[in-house]
Design brief:
By secondary structure, the protein is α+β, with helices and mostly antiparallel strands. The chain has one domain: Alpha-Beta Complex (endopeptidase fold (from Nostoc punctiforme)), CATH 3.90.1720.10. It is 36% helix and 17% strand. It has 5 helices and 5 strands; from the N terminus they run ββββαβαααα. β2 and β3 form a beta hairpin. α3 crosses α4. The radius of gyration is 17 Å and the shape is globular.
Length: 165
Amino acid sequence: MKPEYGDVICVNHGIYNHFGIYVDDDHVIHYAGKDEDFFLRNMYIDETRMSKFLGNSNKYYVYKFPYDVTKPIKRIKGEGLNRGYKESAYAMYMLLKIKNKIKYKIYSPEETVKRARSRIGERRFNLGLNNCEYFAIWCKTGVSQSYQVNLVLDAIFIKSKIDIA
């Protein structure tokens, strides 16, 4: 599938997926770094060549967004963290998901690129709280969210068998 102006595109880099906003055949807006910044210290939002975005890959994916931001979440019973902490941590996690669901909307391709360009130069990269996926999904939907980070958080909550009953 060929991407269109304003699409969220993704390239797999082995253990993670890297996201950006497609502008044209030669331009993508994404969190970039100087050459190979393995320590993620100098990441910033930039409009770069598609070849830089792709890195060593020649294949990328186009993300399409549903009208609903999240699928239903199961209630989990069991043991793990102490009750007070696990209830408040889970409650905050659920409130964030609900807040995101309320804010979720699909922006037009023009507005998506405009939102991406409005953040060019930003240097607030944080692997867990503000990464390339948060950026790209925010540009398209208004929601700062990373499904990769959510998978880790879901695994933590499931592993600790949170008791919310």
